[in-house]
């Protein structure tokens, strides 16, 4: 799923003419929604997917701050 999201995410960044690291969660939302749509339509276990009312996709960025401490930022980028 990460590869699918990354492809949509990079295409969205290119369309907006912004570096992908600078996209907000709202700007990444079309990529997340398209990823979830593709998962539902082409997933390996369609009967399992149909059991649930919806899914959410989160993007997690992990980095180090100036003091060497790990910083984790989570943002909702897709929902159906």
Report the C-alpha radius of gyration, rounded: 14 Å
Q: How does the overall form come out from the CA principal axes? A: globular
The neighbouring-strand order within the major sheet is 1-2
Main sheet record: 2 strands, antiparallel
The number of distinct helices, counting runs of at least 4 residues, comes to 3
Strand content: 15-25%
Helix content: 40-55%
Give the assembly state of these chains. single chain
Order of helices and strands: HHHEE
Distance N to C terminus: 15 Å
Report a brief summary of the structure:
This protein has 80 residues and is of the alpha+beta class. The chain is 48% helix and 24% strand. The protein has helices at 2-16, 25-42, 46-50; strands at 56-64, 70-79.
How would you describe this protein?
This protein is of the alpha+beta class and 80 residues long. It has 3 helices and 2 strands, in the order αααββ. A two-stranded antiparallel ribbon has the order 1-2. A hairpin with a 5-residue loop joins strand 1 and strand 2. The two termini are 15 Å apart.
Structural features:
single chain; 80 residues; two-stranded antiparallel sheet; 3 helices; globular
Summarize the topology.
Blueprint: H1 2-16, H2 25-42, H3 46-50, E1 56-64, E2 70-79
Helix pairs in contact: 1-2
């Amino acid at each position: 799923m990460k590869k699918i999201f990354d492809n949509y995410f990079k295409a969205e960044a290119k369309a907006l003419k912004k570096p992908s690291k600078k996209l907000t969660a709202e700007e990444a939302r079309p990529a997340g929604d398209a990823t979830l749509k593709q998962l539902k339509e082409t997933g390996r276990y369609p009967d399992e997917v149909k059991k649930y009312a919806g899914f959410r996709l989160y993007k997690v960025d992990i980095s180090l701050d100036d003091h060497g401490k790990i910083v984790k930022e989570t943002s909702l980028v897709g929902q159906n």
